[in-house]
Amino acid sequence: MQQNQDKSAAPGIDKKMRQLEEFSTDHKGRELTTNQGVKLTNTDDSLKAGVRGPTLMEDFHFREKITHFDHERIPERVVHARGFGAYGFFQVYEPMAEYTKAKFLQDPAGKTPVFVRFSTVAGSRGSADTVRDVRGFAVKFYTEDGNYDLVGNNIPVFFIQDAIKFPDVIHAVKPEPHNEIPQASTAHDTFWDFVVNTPETAHMVMWVMSDRAIPRSFRMMEGFGVNTYRFVNAQGKARFIKFHWKPVLGVHSLVRDEAQKLSGKDPDFHRRDLWDAIEQGNYPEYEFGVQMLDEEQEFNFDFDILDPTKFWPEELVPVKIIGKMTLNRNVENFFAETEQVAFCPGNVVPGIDFSNDPLLQGRLFSYQDTQLIRLGGPNFHEIPVNRPVVAVHNNQRDGYHRLTVDKGTVSYSPNALQQNCPAPVAEEDGYVHYAERVDGRKIRGRSDSFRDFYSQATLFWNSMSGPEKEHIIDAFHFEVGNVKDKTLKQRVVDMFNQVAPELAGKIALGIGANPPVEPGGTGVTAASAAVSQENTIRTPLTRKVAVLAENGFCYQGLNQVVSLLLNAGVSADIVSSRMGMLTGTDGKQMEAVKDFTTANAVLYDAVYVPGGAQSIQSLLKTPDAREFINEAYKHAKPIAAADEGVDFLQAAAGRAQLAPPDSAGQLGTGQGVVTIRAASDWRSFGEEFVKAIAMHRHWTRA
To answer: Among residues 35, 61, 147, 153, which one is catalytic?
Structure first.
């Protein structure tokens, strides 16, 4: 029996030995790298402001080396706790050697693996997806030069200018400490108290009160690097850059009432949407773009290009689209991958460098430090999702959760016992920091060019369409309306009078505050079309339609319209009072996959009601069906109906006065409502409905 036990255990032992061998290395004959696989040219001197100057915080190699040593003797994220991730790949459109020596930006035929994590900022892991909040948009590129992390948001600016204030803004936005309320919301006193006492927040608050803070899906939101970085080419020429991700499906959002209802109906709405899209082969795609400025252009604008509360208007600095990212694989294990992934803006590769953006400078330290406590020590780079695709060789040792079995007696540099291995590489093969000239006295302060807090907030307001402005006002009414301190409410009105007196007056009207005594404003009249979602891509692809039907529906109408929708890339769910097979007027059947308990208008992009007298009579007796239509109408979604279905729209409309534009005609269209009677031309009807779906919302109803 013992002999049999030994034999049965042998395969498992062999497997474990192979695993140990896989993580074993003696570093002989290897080149020195960081834990991200970036080759190093020097491990004896820290990065300084001059040979006799102070050590700089941006020295990522020094920080990695010393923090690893500090933690060698051997929780939920504070921010961005609720996230969802996926794998994919990136391809550059053309060689970028003129601008950067980053290898992953050179070969259009090459595919660089990526992992992307989308997230909300303020809420805990248990909060809802659709809350009003900034969305994280973090991309880890597994390049041949090591890992590169582009850690950004879906908004191009931030609340603060200097990283030293980051703990303050997060403490203010988080639930109030005495009762841990409210969760994942800025609709409370401490946030707005911080805002009115920190006027540099004005621009970011405008974005957060806009539709950008409640995206329709991760697949339909932009991403921004936020901070100013540098491209450096092989000749040593540097350019200032801003990074952009532009979704191929366009930029689209929810409305506030819809987003709040979704938080209850499906708190996983965004993660479910991303997961389902990838499983169905509707791979999310984002084009990658950069704004670039020569260093000589640094002071050519009426804003400071290093100020993280400012963006570079695309009309002044065009975005050059240089590649595309495709997400095509879901994770296998949420905790092992999405929860344990570790990003840091300091993870860069040759050809990408930093600027003196004071928010970025602090981020270079903060992210690395956070991972040490969250992932239990300095070896988080060995977790599979964080592991670079290139070999890692250095003399860092031990610490919590060490997987690598380092062989030999040498664990220091320089050394003679191992021929100084792993050895630094020549400058042309490793990471070399851009040799920026730095002069100045050590001081706690900021440039006077950072003092303009309101001009770009006004620019953003000017750039909004009428409906977008109404949504911003509505957001202020809800958010500031929940503030208890009346003095604080008044200060919000007075602060945003500096942005736009029209806005301040309407905020005051909705929250019980006094309108401004004197009109304010900045005098800025310029606008940027690029920041308005009215100017985005419009496509029906991957949209979802709810079809309301009961027994006795018109099979021909339902079948033909659904087929037309599918051909246009639109999916459809039949929703009925009970799930299961429904029988049409001709005896043919189709399956209702949802009922009014498991489905709601907020879960869909559009609604279709086919004809059939018996089906419509049943729907008219169903309050949930009538509410379904009114909810879709209220949220400006496309609605279509055929034959008796038109009668249902009219009967269900209630106070919305939902009347088709031409109920007597063959085909009626208008304000996103498409109707047909005496149906004969299903193709034209379906095509008009698809056009309405592509528009996303039909604000003219208001």
So the answer is: 153
Is residue 537 packed enough to be buried (19+ CB in 10 Å), middle (13-18) or exposed (0-12)? middle
CA 204 – CA 186 distance, rounded (Å): 13
**Fold of domain 75-169+213-390:** Catalase HpII,  Chain A, domain 1 (2.40.180)
Q: Which residues contact 663 (CB under 8 A, 6 or more apart)?
A: 646, 650, 675, 677
SS3 category, 563? helix
Q: Is 80 a catalytic residue?
A: yes
| 8 A C-beta contact, residue 234 and residue 101 | yes
Q: Is 543 annotated as a binding residue?
A: no
> Torsions phi, psi of 194, nearest 5?
-65, -40
Question: Per the structure block, which two tokens stand in for 664?
Answer: 């007597």
CA nearest to 346, candidates 35, 570, 696: 35
What's the rounded mean pLDDT across residues 318-328?
97
Binding residue per annotation — 77?
yes
Helix, strand, coil shares of the chain, percent, nearest 5, are 35, 20, 45
| Whole-structure pTM value | 0.90
Summarize pLDDT for 49-77 with one digit per residue, the tens. 887 677 888 999 988 888 887 777 648 99
Q: ∠ CA(339), CA(340), CA(342), 5° rounding? A: 110
| pLDDT at residue number 23 | 64
Residue 199: other Cβ atoms inside 10 A: 15
Catalytic residue among 27, 80, 188, 471: 80
* Mean pLDDT value across the chain: 92
pLDDT of residue 655: 44
The region, left, alpha or beta by phi > 0 then psi within -120 to 50, assigned to residue 570 is: beta
| Alpha carbons within 13 A on the beta-carbon side of 33 | 25
Question: Is 578 annotated as ligand-binding?
Answer: no
Find out whether 450 is annotated in a ligand binding site: no
Cα 45 vs. chain centroid, distance in angstroms?
A: 38
- Quickly count helices (H) and strands (E) in the chain: 17, 21
Q: Is 5 helix (H, G, I), strand (E, B) or coil?
A: helix
| Class of the CATH domain delimited by 538-701 | alpha beta
477 catalytically annotated: no
Write down the domain spans for the chain: 1-74+391-428, 75-169+213-390, 538-701
